[in-house]
Model the fold of this input.
Amino acid sequence: MAEATQVALVVGGSRGIGRAIVERLAASGFDIWLTYRGNHAAAEEAKAAVESKGRSCRLLAFDVADRAATRTALEPLLQERCPDALVFNAGIARDNLLAFMRDEEWDDVLRTNLDGFFNVSKPVVFEMIRKKRGRIVVISSISGQLGQAGQMNYAASKAGLIGAARALAREVGRKNVFVNVVSPGVIDTEMTAEIPKEHVLPLIPLNRFGTSEEVAAVVDFLCSEPRMYVHGQVIGVNGGMAV
Done:
C-alpha cells in the first residue's frame, strides 16, 4: 500500500536556504525530516513553520561529519520508511588563503560538506534503490563551478559534490532515482552578510543577490514535479553570474 503523504529528508534545514527549502516543500505537501547540528531554537522555529502549513516535522540533531552519529540518527527512521526526497544542504565555510589555511579549516569543511553527503546518502540511496523511486537534490555552489580565491576548501568540497552527484546519477537512474544539483550564486543569507555588495553586484547580470526562496523553488520542482526527465544536471541559481 502506497504511503499517503510524501516525506522529504532535508539535511541542514533549520536556517537560510535550508529553512526556505523546508517551508517550500511543506507547502507542496511533504512531511519533513529536518536535520541540524546544534541550533535548537532555529530548528524549533522551522518546525513551527512546517506545522503551520499542516505538515509534520521531525527534528534530528546530529553532525553529518560524524559517520556513526549520522547512521544512528537515520537508521531507525529508514526502518519505518524511505523518504521520497533527500535534499543535502549541509555546509560550512572556513575561508582563508591556502598559504595561511590551517589543517582544521580544510578538514572541517571537507568532512562536513563532502563526507557528510556520503554519510547521509549511502543508507538513504540503498532504500531508494530497493523502493525503486526517489529524488535526490544536492546543494552545491557557484564556488564549486568557478572557484573563488580564499575558498579553496569550500570550492573543493562543492565541486566534489557535483562530481559525486553526477556519478551517482549514472548509478541509480535505471532504478527511477533522480539525482540533480542546485548551484546557488550569491544568496542573501547570514553566510553572505559580510560580502561587499559594491564589489559583487557588477559581476551579476541581474544586479542583485538572490533569495533563499528562489533556490527553494528550483529544489521544490526537482523533488515534486511528476513529469521528470531532468537527471544528472547542475542547475545554477545565480542571476547570470555563471553562464
User: Anything to note?
Assistant: The helical segments are 16-27, 40-52, 67-80, 103-131, 142-146, 152-172, 197-200, 212-224. Residues 103-131 form the longest helix (29 residues).
